[in-house]
């Protein structure tokens, strides 16, 4: 299996369910910290944040599914 990296961008609460759906995980420590962001506020008052994720299931990365979660989208498949 080959490791696939992709980047998502958004504001507000991160769609944690997508970690299970894809399945994927944060690529590094900074990405893990960025998951939380300012999710305690709605709407978000911080700029969009980019999070790099990794998966072995590249076929499961469905950009339109991410857009179901408000401002979140895949910016680099």
Descriptive overview:
By secondary structure, the protein is of the alpha+beta class. The protein has one domain. 22% of the residues lie in helices and 26% in strands. The protein has helices at 17-21, 29-36, 63-66, and strands at residues 4-10, 25-26, 49-55, 73-76. It has a four-stranded antiparallel beta sheet. The mean pLDDT is 84.
Can you tag this structure with a few keywords?
single chain, 77 residues, four-stranded antiparallel beta sheet, 3 helices, globular
Briefly characterize the structure.
The protein has 3 helices and 4 strands.
Number of helix segments?
Answer: 3
What is the spatial order of strands in the main beta sheet? 2-3-1-4
β-strand number? 4
Which consecutive residue ranges, at least 5 long each, have pLDDT under 50?
none
State the oligomer. Answer: single chain
Strand percentage lies at 25-35%
What characteristic shape results from the CA principal axes?
globular
How do the SSEs run, as a string of H and E? EHEHEHE
N-to-C span: 17 Å
The overall pLDDT, averaged over residues, is 84
């Amino acid at each position: 299996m080959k490791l696939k990296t992709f980047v998502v961008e958004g504001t507000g609460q991160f769609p944690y369910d997508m970690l299970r759906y894809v399945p994927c995980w944060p690529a590094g420590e900074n990405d893990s910290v960025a998951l939380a962001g300012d999710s305690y506020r709605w709407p978000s008052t911080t700029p969009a944040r980019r999070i790099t994720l990794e998966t072995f299931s590249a076929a499961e990365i469905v950009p339109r599914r991410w857009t179901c979660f408000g401002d979140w989208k895949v910016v680099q498949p």
